[in-house]
Amino acid sequence: MYIGRFLVVAPGIGAYRVSSRSFPNRRVVDRGDTLTVGPTPDAPETDNPYVSYNCVREVETPTGEPLAVVGNGSHVDPVAEKAELGYPARDALATALLALDFEKDDYDTPRIAGVVGADTATIATVRRDALIVETVDSPTLVATYELDAPESHDLAATDAASAATELLTADFEHSVCAAAATVDGEGVSLAFDNGE
């Protein structure tokens, strides 16, 4: 089944996978406290604004609480910025997703995102017909197609590298690359898997 891009979040862990039929020549690049999806060196040129974006960002709140923001597009940055200002996860997600709305492409692709703390997780999506923001206490998946409302999902991984690989190899079609973060009292750990 093709569910498009998807993410899974739970307290302490979050992961995101690029699945694509149209733009498979992409990879995740580590930029320090941010993981970015972008074209591979051999990718054909495109002016599509939805091909390159930050997909995982490390955040520190004003109280010093470490968080990770995961998502499928340019909304990751405003969610992270709101969280850095001290907005609760629910408000950071709702504000950014409501402002940017679903992607204005041929499919009205939903925007999906999550905010992960050491002991908390919040997942969200904005579609043509709804804005959904939920606090979750177990692994929960939301995708851009087919599974476009949050639902329970098995996630065995406990570290970022394993989570990225688990999502990359999950039994959904057109896998491209994946990124993940874990959050604990020590901070945020990031990892990615480009399937190489």
UniProtKB/TrEMBL annotation:
It is an enzyme of class 3 (hydrolase). It catalyses: IMP + H2O = 5-formamido-1-(5-phospho-D-ribosyl)imidazole-4-carboxamide. The keyword Hydrolase applies. GO terms for biological process: 'de novo' IMP biosynthetic process. This is IMP cyclohydrolase. NCBIfam families: PRK04151.1 (NF003167), purO_arch (TIGR01922). GO terms for molecular function: IMP cyclohydrolase activity. Catalyzes the cyclization of 5-formylamidoimidazole-4-carboxamide ribonucleotide to IMP. Residues 2-186 form the Inosine monophosphate cyclohydrolase-like domain. Keywords: Hydrolase, Purine biosynthesis. Pathway: Purine metabolism; IMP biosynthesis via de novo pathway; IMP from 5-formamido-1-(5-phospho-D-ribosyl)imidazole-4-carboxamide: step 1/1.
